Every structure is written in structure tokens, then in C-alpha cells.
Amino acid sequence: MRTETTINNTYDFGIGRRLHNLPKLRAIGFAANRRLLETERLSHDCILSEDALQAIHRPVAAGRQRASGLRFADQRVHALLHALILFRQLASGFRAADLRQHLAGLSGGDPASISQGAITYQLRRLRLHGLIERIPDSFRYRVTDFGLRIALFFTRTYNRLLRPGLAAAIPALQAIATPLTRSFNALTTQIDIAIKQAKLAAPNLTHSRQVSFVKQG
Q1: Helix residue ranges per DSSP H, 58-95
Q2: CATH 1.10.10.10 for the 62-166 domain, yes or no
């Protein structure tokens, strides 16, 4: 598939039709092409990103090492992801002790209650999924670019979209009226009306058939 840019009227861009205006028109055309290609790339990446999303949720194995998937909206997973966002700012990386300290703080627990085996497993889990990597010749880890983006997307989507969205969508949790609340209420009302109309239509249809049968008899 080839993209061809055509400018029919240069005056649409405030540019004259003389030959010396050609560089300006080329710049406008190339900018339009870049925007189109960027849109096509993002649209294509939305399809490919499904594989990455499913891979994060599935268990992973590398040789004899295995680890479970990182399930979206799981509290322990989100504590890990929040810690990764903090650790990304550390130029020298982070240690297992740092992860224990932050996980305890994010979960409201005591660092001593988290065993070394549990921390080792979480580190392996993050590493096998490609969210962190070990710094050579050390016991420190750094957050990968992939890990930072996953952590930001998962935590922000959950905290800023799903949690407040569910609070507005579920009737028992509605505290104040919001546009989303009103939209869900209107949708529920229309569905209830449609159901009532469907229940009224069925007896009428049956009655009309009975009358027709009697007349024919």
C-alpha cells in the first residue's frame, strides 16, 4: 500500500503557486505523511500489543525457572508495579532489600513479614517477564523501558479509570452524581422500558393469534 500526497490548491495553506514555493509545499506534504504513518503505526501496534498483554498475564518459563503471570488489577501485582515506577528513578538500580521495604509499605505490612524466598520469587517473576534486568556482576536490578511502560499503563488505568469508573457505574457505590452515573442510569432505564414493552408484546401477540384461530374455526 502506497501513500501519495496531492495538494490541489496551494492557497489552502496560504502559499502561492510559483515555483519558489515548492520547498514550503514539500515540508507541508512530508508533515502530513508523517502524521498519517504515525496514525497507521499506532493502529497496527494496537493489534500487536494484544500479544504482549496476553504474555504478561500468562505464566512464563526460561529453562528451569518458572514464574506466574502478572494479572491486571491483582493487588500484589500492582504493588510490584508501583515499586517499579519508584525504582526507575534510581541510577544505580535497586536491591532485593529495597523491594521488600517498598512492598511492605505499599501493602501496609511489616518488612520482616515478607520472607527472602518471597522476594526472590518476585524478582524472578519480574525478570522473566522482561520488566527488570539484573545489572552484571552485582546483586542489583534496573527497570527496563518495557517494564516502566507496563507499570505506568497498568497502574494509571486501574487507579484513574477502572476504580472511579466502577464507583460511578455500580449503584450501591454511587456517592455523587457524575456524567458516567447519569449515563448508566439512563441506559438502565431504557433497558427496563424495552423489557417491559417486550413482556407486553408477547401476550398481545398470543391473544391476536387466538382470536384469529377462533374466527377461522
Answers
A1: 75-87
A2: yes
